Amino acid sequence: MQVTETLNEGLKRELKVTIPAADMETQLNERLADAKDKVRINGFRPGKVPMSHMKKTYGKSIMAELVNEIIQSRPTEILSERGEKSATQPEINMTEDQDEAEEILAAKKDLEFTLAYEVIPTFEVADLTNLSVTRQVVDIEEAEVEEQVMRVADSARNYETKKGAAKMGDRVTMDYLGKVDGEAFEGGTAEDAQLVLGSNQFIPGFEDQLVGIKAGDEKVVTVTFPEEYQAEHLAGKEANFEIKAKEVAAAGDIEINDELATNLGLESAAKLREVVREQIEGQYGQLTRQKVKRQILDQLDELHQFETPSKLVESEFDNIWRQVNTDLEQNGKTFEDEDTTEDEARAEYTALAERRVRLGLVLSQVGEAAEIDVTEDELQRALFEQVRQFPGQEKEIYEYFQKTPGAAQSLRAPIFEEKTIDHLMTVIKVTDETVTKEQLTAEDEEEAAKPAKKKAPAKKKAAPKKKAAEKSED
Questions:
Q1: Are 63 and 71 in contact (CB under 8 A)?
Q2: Mean pLDDT (the chain, rounded)
Q3: CA dihedral sign of residues 207, 208, 212, 216
Q4: DSSP string computed for 162-204
């Protein structure tokens, strides 16, 4: 086998691989000889089939298998011998001329094919001990725990059917049909919907108009969607909701006691408070980790500047660009609405794709040096979480990850990255800073100052509910 390098520019490589016809014929004859004792051909005793007849009968198909095996296995061997790692699956090209292909299968012509690929760049990881981050920590006060416990108790409080008119704090069970310009709209219809008056779950003015309604009453509630409403086609529009009240129920008293805890599946009120505190700590812990991780990635990005494989960048950009355009389409917006142009957005997201690829390569090298591994149990848990997101499609999801090349890597990569971040936290300088919850939950000034075009719009819902604050992350 002869390997000739025909291109070496930056990270791009191209190799021409030639396997002489004589070598191919030798391998073919070996396989035919091995098959000779196994085949059964009428007119010949076992093991007595002439090689000429074997070659005439099976030569072409066995040679085709041999060529396919070479194409599948040799590229990996060649790259290993060269001490190179391909950023993506090498592109393999061989003759498409039918006559030439027939000559190769007949061992009358050398087998030639080319490998085109980009190598993983070589770079030196910076001294990680020079990295430093500030970890914001919130001291959780008892008042916050109690406030959250009260919310839990409020959501679990009992309601008893009452006679008479609904007042603030009562729960109304109803059917409603919303119309704009006389036409029903998606998300504006519900049956047996329950609404606690004064909870501000629906758009302004909706709940106020239900005060005084009684079970069996029918009423038309007229409201105007806020100008900044989630669904663009409803924003600022007047809507009429045809209401049929089914029940009015008064709220029972809130009592934080062991009985409440038991109803929630806990053994005591003390345990309820403990669980609530852990939940709050977990929520703040996630925010803290996100901010710390961003600091780490920003510093790694500044310390490592090298050429990135264009195929990886293209793939990452395609993923980002697809999501950006999906979000714009769902929100009925254009790039101009986001205060940018398509060309400017492409340039920005290309830079983001390059950053992600570069940081991925840095983290990969850091993780490998630290001998970080993703266990089979961790992959199974990640797969289970994926399956949970698609109830009723469990079998299809399992089959997808079993049969789709690279699918398992999509589960492994984020686990590997998080474990690498955990490792980095043990070697870099970490300074804890006690902050208020407002400081922790506030967006970084730098992020808040970014133009809207940096942040893909969040998916909106066309229901009569108030707009919830949503954040997007890089």
A1: no
A2: 87
A3: negative
A4: -SS---TT-EEEEEEEEEETTEEEEEEEEEEEEEETTS--BST
Nearest to 240 by CA among 201, 194, 205: 205
Q: Where in the chain is the domain with CATH 3.10.50.40?
A: 158-252
Q: What is the CATH number of domain 270-454?
A: 1.10.3120.10
CATH of span 158-252: 3.10.50.40
Kindly state the tokens that stand for 257: 């006691």
Tell me how far apart the 2 most distant CA atoms of the chain are, in Å: 102
Q: pLDDT per residue over 154-212, tens digit each?
A: 888 888 999 999 999 999 999 999 999 999 998 889 999 999 999 888 888 999 999 99
Range list for CATH 3.30.70.1050 in the chain: 2-118
| Helix 376-388 vs helix 394-403: crossing angle, to nearest 10 | 140
Q: Quick one: tokens of 428? A: 């870099």
Residue 206 · residue 221 · CB < 8 Å: yes
Half-sphere exposure of 37 (CA within 13 A, CB side): 3
The sign of the dihedral angle between the CA atoms of 156, 157, 160, 162 is negative
DSSP letter (8 states) at residue 207: T
Q: Which pairing describes strands 429-435 and 238-251: parallel, antiparallel, or unpaired?
A: unpaired
> CATH 1.10.3120.10: which residues of the chain?
270-454
Residue 440 contacts by C-beta under 8 Å, 6 or more apart in sequence? Answer: 136, 138, 284, 287, 288, 291
- Locate 95 and state its tokens: 């003759």
Residue 471 has pLDDT above 70, yes or no: no
Inter-CA distances, 437 with 142, 144, 295, 441, Å:
13, 10, 19, 6
CATH assignment, 2-118: 3.30.70.1050
Q: Report the alpha-carbon distance of residue 87 to residue 32 in Å, rounded.
A: 38
**pTM value?**
0.72
Q: What's the number of CA atoms in the CB half-sphere (13 Å) around residue 9?
A: 5
Report helix angle 98-105 to 51-82, nearest 10: 100
User: What would the two tokens of residue 318 be?
Assistant: 């395609």
DSSP helix/strand/coil, 328: helix
For 120-140, write each residue's pLDDT tens digit.
Answer: 999 999 999 999 999 999 999
Question: Can you tell me the distance from the alpha carbon of 291 to that of 293, in angstroms, rounded to the nearest whole number?
Answer: 5
